[in-house]
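Sample pair:
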Amino acid sequence: MNLTKNFTLNELTQSETALRKGINNVPTQDVISALQTLAVNVLQPVREHYGKGVKVTSGYRSPEVNGSVGSKTSDHCKGQAADIEIPGLPNLELAQYIKDTLQFTQLILEFYTPGVTDSGWVHVSYDPANLKCQVLTAVKQDGKTVYLPGLVA
Protein backbone atom coordinates (compact mmCIF):
# COMPACT_ATOMS: atom_id res chain seq x y z
CA MET A 1 0.00 0.00 0.00
CA ASN A 2 1.39 3.40 -0.99
CA LEU A 3 1.18 6.15 1.62
CA THR A 4 2.71 8.74 -0.75
CA LYS A 5 4.45 8.68 -4.12
CA ASN A 6 7.69 7.36 -2.60
CA PHE A 7 6.70 5.72 0.70
CA THR A 8 4.89 2.45 1.33
CA LEU A 9 3.18 1.12 4.41
CA ASN A 10 5.56 -1.84 4.36
CA GLU A 11 8.71 0.27 4.66
CA LEU A 12 7.20 2.22 7.57
CA THR A 13 6.20 -0.93 9.47
CA GLN A 14 9.21 -3.20 8.86
CA SER A 15 10.82 -4.30 12.09
CA GLU A 16 13.80 -6.61 12.42
CA THR A 17 13.04 -6.83 16.15
CA ALA A 18 9.46 -7.97 15.47
CA LEU A 19 10.65 -10.57 12.96
CA ARG A 20 13.45 -11.84 15.18
CA LYS A 21 11.21 -12.12 18.26
CA GLY A 22 8.01 -13.18 16.49
CA ILE A 23 6.09 -10.08 17.64
CA ASN A 24 3.05 -8.81 15.76
CA ASN A 25 3.76 -5.38 14.27
CA VAL A 26 0.60 -4.93 12.18
CA PRO A 27 -0.79 -1.39 12.56
CA THR A 28 -4.41 -0.44 13.14
CA GLN A 29 -6.25 1.79 10.67
CA ASP A 30 -5.66 4.79 12.98
CA VAL A 31 -1.93 4.09 12.96
CA ILE A 32 -1.93 3.74 9.17
CA SER A 33 -3.61 7.16 8.92
CA ALA A 34 -0.97 8.66 11.24
CA LEU A 35 1.84 7.09 9.18
CA GLN A 36 0.36 8.59 6.04
CA THR A 37 0.15 12.02 7.71
CA LEU A 38 3.83 11.71 8.72
CA ALA A 39 4.81 10.65 5.21
CA VAL A 40 2.84 13.44 3.51
CA ASN A 41 4.05 16.22 5.80
CA VAL A 42 7.66 15.24 6.50
CA LEU A 43 9.05 12.24 4.65
CA GLN A 44 7.82 13.04 1.13
CA PRO A 45 8.92 16.70 1.30
CA VAL A 46 12.39 15.55 2.42
CA ARG A 47 12.51 13.05 -0.47
CA GLU A 48 11.47 15.71 -2.98
CA HIS A 49 13.94 18.28 -1.66
CA TYR A 50 16.98 16.01 -1.85
CA GLY A 51 15.86 13.94 -4.85
CA LYS A 52 17.29 10.87 -3.14
CA GLY A 53 15.84 7.88 -1.35
CA VAL A 54 15.10 8.37 2.34
CA LYS A 55 16.00 5.30 4.38
CA VAL A 56 13.50 4.62 7.17
CA THR A 57 15.43 2.70 9.81
CA SER A 58 12.48 2.60 12.21
CA GLY A 59 8.87 3.58 11.70
CA TYR A 60 5.84 2.07 13.40
CA ARG A 61 6.53 -0.11 16.42
CA SER A 62 3.72 -1.93 18.18
CA PRO A 63 3.80 -1.34 21.95
CA GLU A 64 5.23 -4.84 22.41
CA VAL A 65 8.00 -4.24 19.86
CA ASN A 66 8.70 -0.84 21.38
CA GLY A 67 8.92 -2.31 24.87
CA SER A 68 11.42 -4.89 23.67
CA VAL A 69 13.82 -2.15 22.56
CA GLY A 70 13.74 -0.52 25.97
CA SER A 71 11.21 2.28 25.64
CA LYS A 72 7.83 2.15 27.35
CA THR A 73 6.14 4.87 25.28
CA SER A 74 6.97 6.49 21.98
CA ASP A 75 5.40 8.32 19.07
CA HIS A 76 6.57 5.30 17.05
CA CYS A 77 3.72 3.33 18.71
CA LYS A 78 1.17 5.80 17.35
CA GLY A 79 2.60 5.85 13.82
CA GLN A 80 3.67 9.45 14.33
CA ALA A 81 7.47 8.99 14.22
CA ALA A 82 10.22 7.65 12.04
CA ASP A 83 13.98 7.38 12.30
CA ILE A 84 15.47 8.33 8.96
CA GLU A 85 18.67 9.01 7.07
CA ILE A 86 19.79 9.63 3.52
CA PRO A 87 22.91 7.57 2.78
CA GLY A 88 25.84 9.84 1.99
CA LEU A 89 24.20 12.95 3.51
CA PRO A 90 25.35 14.09 6.95
CA ASN A 91 22.48 13.61 9.39
CA LEU A 92 23.20 17.05 10.82
CA GLU A 93 22.40 18.53 7.39
CA LEU A 94 19.20 16.49 7.16
CA ALA A 95 18.10 17.57 10.63
CA GLN A 96 18.92 21.21 9.86
CA TYR A 97 16.80 21.10 6.69
CA ILE A 98 13.81 19.67 8.57
CA LYS A 99 14.23 22.21 11.38
CA ASP A 100 14.42 25.16 9.00
CA THR A 101 11.76 24.10 6.51
CA LEU A 102 9.07 21.79 7.87
CA GLN A 103 6.60 21.64 10.71
CA PHE A 104 6.98 18.73 13.12
CA THR A 105 6.37 17.73 16.70
CA GLN A 106 9.86 16.61 17.66
CA LEU A 107 13.18 16.40 15.84
CA ILE A 108 16.13 14.60 17.42
CA LEU A 109 19.60 14.33 15.92
CA GLU A 110 20.62 11.03 17.50
CA PHE A 111 24.23 10.03 18.15
CA TYR A 112 25.75 12.01 15.27
CA THR A 113 29.54 12.23 15.15
CA PRO A 114 30.82 15.36 13.37
CA GLY A 115 32.88 14.42 10.33
CA VAL A 116 31.35 10.92 10.11
CA THR A 117 28.74 11.37 7.40
CA ASP A 118 26.55 8.34 8.04
CA SER A 119 26.76 8.37 11.83
CA GLY A 120 23.61 8.41 13.90
CA TRP A 121 20.14 9.09 12.54
CA VAL A 122 17.34 11.63 12.60
CA HIS A 123 14.19 10.97 14.61
CA VAL A 124 11.22 13.05 13.51
CA SER A 125 7.64 12.95 14.75
CA TYR A 126 4.49 14.60 13.45
CA ASP A 127 1.31 15.02 15.49
CA PRO A 128 -0.94 17.57 13.74
CA ALA A 129 -2.45 18.49 17.12
CA ASN A 130 0.97 19.26 18.64
CA LEU A 131 3.37 20.87 16.16
CA LYS A 132 5.67 22.26 18.85
CA CYS A 133 8.85 21.97 16.71
CA GLN A 134 10.97 20.71 19.62
CA VAL A 135 14.59 20.19 18.54
CA LEU A 136 17.03 18.02 20.52
CA THR A 137 20.33 16.23 20.11
CA ALA A 138 20.84 12.83 21.73
CA VAL A 139 24.36 12.07 22.97
CA LYS A 140 25.96 9.57 25.32
CA GLN A 141 27.41 10.99 28.50
CA ASP A 142 28.83 8.61 31.11
CA GLY A 143 27.09 5.72 29.38
CA LYS A 144 23.65 7.35 29.53
CA THR A 145 21.61 8.98 26.79
CA VAL A 146 21.27 12.72 27.36
CA TYR A 147 19.07 15.05 25.31
CA LEU A 148 20.54 18.48 24.67
CA PRO A 149 18.41 21.36 23.39
CA GLY A 150 18.88 22.31 19.74
CA LEU A 151 21.14 20.77 17.13
CA VAL A 152 24.53 20.23 18.73
CA ALA A 153 27.38 18.90 16.63
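The radius of gyration is 15 Å.
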